Amino acid sequence: MKLRAVIFDLDNTLYDYDTAHGTAFVKLCAFAEKTLGLPEAEFRTVYRLVMEEQITRCGGAYAAIHNRMIRFQMILERIGRPILYAPEMSDLYWNVFLDACEPVSGVRETLETLRAEYRLGVGTNMTADYQYRKLQKLGLLDLTDFLVSSEEVGAEKPERKLFEVCAEKAGCPAEACLFVGDSLSHDVRGAQGAGMRAVWLSRQPGPAGIARIGSVPELPEFLRAMGRDEV
Q1: Which of 79, 88, 98, 150 has its Cα between 20 and 30 A from that of 159?
Q2: pTM beyond 0.90
C-alpha cells in the first residue's frame, strides 16, 4: 500500500530531550538547595522516588505521570515544605527547558520536503500543553498536520490505541503510515504492533529486520528507497 502519512515521536526525535532536561534540572537543583535547603544529591533522590510514586499512584503509565506540577507538589509534600513553591518550580523548569530546546539539524527542511507528499503528524507520550509549546519553540508546529498525545487518548506508547488514533487522524489505514522514533520498544515495536511501518532513529546498530536511519535528514532518501522497493 502506498505510504500516505509520516508520524514522528517528539522527545529525542525532533529535538534533544536529554540536553534540555539536563539543563533545566541543574537549575532546579540550585533552586532546591538555595530555597528549600535540600542538597543536590538529596533532591535527585527524592525526585526519582516521586517519579516512581507517580506511576504507582496513577496505577500505570498514563500522561499524568509526566506532569511536572504534580511531581513538584509531591516532592514538597514528601520533604515537608510548602506547596506554594510548586508553581515556581514548574515555571523555572519549563522556562529553562524550552529555552534549551533546539531542533535537530535539518529537521525543518526535511519536514518541508516531506509535506509536499505526505501528511505529517506527531504521536507522543506526555501532556498536550507542553508538547505544543515544544513544537512552537522548535518552529515545527506549522508543519504538523495533527498531534496525538497520550493525554488525549488515555494510553501511552507502546499501547496500540495511541497509534490507532494517529492513523485515524492521518485519514488512512495504519499500513499507509510510517512511524519515526528513537525508542525501539515504544515507537518502533508499538507502531508495528498497530500495523504501521516504522523506522528507528538511532546511530546504533539494531536488531535484524528493523529499518533504521541515523538522522532525520536521511528520511527522504529512506522513503525514496522504500518506494523503489515496492514497485
Answers
A1: 98
A2: yes
